[in-house]
Amino acid sequence: MTSSSVPSVKLLINGEFVESRTQQWRDVVNPATQEVLARVPFATQDEMNAAVAAAQEAFKTWRKTPIGARARIFLKYQQLIRENMKELAALLTAEQGKTLPDAEGDVFRGLEVVEHAANIGTLQMGELANNVANGVDTYTLLQPIGVCAGITPFNFPAMIPLWMFPMAIACGNTFVLKPSEQDPLVTMRLVELALEAGIPKGVLNVIHGGVDAVNLICDHPDIKAVSFVGSTKVGTHVYNRASLNGKRAQCMMGAKNHAIVLPDANKQQTLNNLLGASFGAAGQRCMALPVVILVGEAQNWLPDLVEKAKTLKVNAGIEPGTDIGPVVSCSALDRISGLIATGIEEGAKLVLDGRNPKVPGYEDGNFVGPTIFSGVTTEMTIYREEIFGPVLCVVNAASLDEAIAFINANPNGNGTALFTRSGAAARHFQEEIDVGQVGINVPIPVPVPLFSFSGSRASKLGDLGPYGKQVVLFYTQTKTITQRWFDEDDVGGAVNTTITLK
């Protein structure tokens, strides 16, 4: 199929889906087949400025829209997402590669945030203190801040956009979204449904592109806040550049998550959880589990872990029973394969080699099977770098405290987990571990939207999380009012030249 015969992805500017006038395009490719699904434009400077201008203009009226009217849009939106779940999952699998059940999970975890946004009436409430001084009351308002922007990654093209624009818009802001240029189709379908739910023109806008689009978002004076999920390199650039331009920024970045397995853990449940978290989505999750620390006698579980990993089925995401789909691109496949080779060269023991699996009918797909290294040390490249593929590093430790110290020495702090039957061990672990999101017998401890995503250290820049109660503070400005009303017959007292209220 030639590039001219495939559909082009549109921009969304001021409520209209617009064909870009750019000369720069990128193919959206099915990673299981290499079929070109669509062309995505790298928007021109004028188009990107027009999107921001539309959001700035729409903010004048949207910020004054009653909170109940905003909430009802998201009640309708969550209904539309539910009704279109199968279509959304199929789009996601075609362009990103993950299995259909995992694609539905991707959409569903974003849907949970939409449901949370529909509760904005209770989330965006201020505080009141009556009579803080003689006849003086103080109260706060949580007011929208203006045009906000989001930059989202390829690995969760439904969930992460839904982390961002629903909460920002529900708070009374307008939004400019830049999805990943690798897989924007499901994001654009979600945007269509958002307009169908009643989001007014200009309140949500979409641009596409690469470095120029990211830099425009960081630099544009009318954008007040930037939310980012992606690599550490790009996230650090976004945070520094946006912050220097006076914007709020929250950047969820790279990770190297660890799980500790104590010998008293439920063996079969633990092995199943480790494999699901390590190899699900072909390891392309910032909350994946690429490092497992086996403590004491649990080190004897390695052969069982390997044998169980061999039973996982590698195939296209649309095929029933698939456990591991393709990685997103040919370049991702090359990078992962190169890191596996480096691991061997640097002395790690390759106990399960998943390279070059045979996948009948999908010979051109970007497939890597489950891969397991043992004897991994902190100096090795496969430990230091985020592989973002189905590669598991196994480390041994003599004690729980040794394993905790090992994790705390890693610069990242996205997520961690402990598998045990001991409440005392779990209590000790959650107190001593220096990682933002902790699972106890839960391998991927991503919280539901009632709570905030709380990655820490090198995995996050900015002090407020991307959803939950924290993000309401991120997307609003707290205004504090201190007021006193005098009785009509109050003649007033002496002049008060002190700073105190009397």
Automatic annotation (TrEMBL):
InterPro entries given in the database record: Ald_DH/histidinol_DH, Ald_DH_C, Ald_DH_N, Aldehyde_DH_dom, MeMal-semiAld_DH
EC code: 1.2.1.27
Tell me which residues make up the Aldehyde dehydrogenase domain: 17-481
> Top EC class per UniProt?
oxidoreductase
UniProt keywords (A-Z) are:
NAD, Oxidoreductase
Any Gene Ontology biological process: thymine catabolic process
Q: Name one GO molecular function term.
A: methylmalonate-semialdehyde dehydrogenase (acylating, NAD) activity
What family is this protein classified in?
Belongs to the aldehyde dehydrogenase family.
Q: Could you tell me what this protein is called? A: methylmalonate-semialdehyde dehydrogenase (CoA acylating)
Question: What organism is recorded for this protein?
Answer: Metapseudomonas lalkuanensis
Which classification does the entry list for the species? Answer: Bacteria, Pseudomonadati, Pseudomonadota, Gammaproteobacteria, Pseudomonadales
